[in-house]
Each structure stands twice: as C-alpha cells, then as structure tokens.
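Any chance you could type out a protein's amino acid sequence plus the matching backbone structure tokens because I've never seen that pairing?

——
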Amino acid sequence: MKKTKKIIGCTWILLKGAEILMMLRDKKPNIPYPDSWVFPGGTLEGRETVRQACIRELKEELGYTPPSMEEILVIHYPNSKTEEHFFLIPFNLEEEQIKLGEGQKVKFFTLDEIENLCLGFWCREVIPIVKRYLLKKAKKE
C-alpha cells in the first residue's frame, strides 16, 4: 500500500484596516478552483516549519515580508492527510506595490464583500470564524 504524504498548508488573512487582501486564482483548468477568489497561501517544502513556509510563500507570491503574524486557526481535514494553518497578518502595502508571483490579481475586500465573491477552497467556511475572531480582538483593544 502506497503511503500518502501529509500536506500542510498555510493561509494568510492579510489585514489592512477593516479590509482583507484576496487573490483571484489563475484560469488554468489543471489547478483547483481556477478563476476563484481565495485567501492567499501555500504549502510547506522540505523540513520547513509552518511559519518558515508562511514567510517564504509570502515573499514568493506577493513580495512581502510580514512584520508579525498570529496563528488563529488550524483545520485538520478528517478524511485526508491535510492540515491548514491560518495566520492573521498585518499588511501595509498598497495593491499597486504588490509583486504578484501567481494568480490573476489581488484586491482588498471587507468580510461582507468577500461573502459575495466566487470563492475557492474552504474560504466560505472560514469567514464566520475570522469575523468572530476579529470582533473579539477589537473588543480587547
């Protein structure tokens, strides 16, 4: 029996004020969720930690080095060898300053606007969790 390698991903909730940066995936038919909006992210390579992968992928995909990052959620998918780590990251670039390494484009949206987009992966399921987290965080500040 062939052993399936565990896939560990990192997803970024890139926050600028009350808006979050979303990425429109490429229209390539051979990728999951082509032409859909997603929270950007990536997967681990080699012996990287989740944080190391997060920093590397941010540089590769957006040309951005985060000043800080806070892990807010981990999802373990029960019937697969996949786990996804979600990081809340302050983002201080304007859209035109982003060096896009993949995807068609990026754009800032409020969480309410994001709910109306054609979303890929688990984005729709994660939005209520992110909303609750941000509300709780705002009350503490």
The first helix runs from residue 50 to 62.
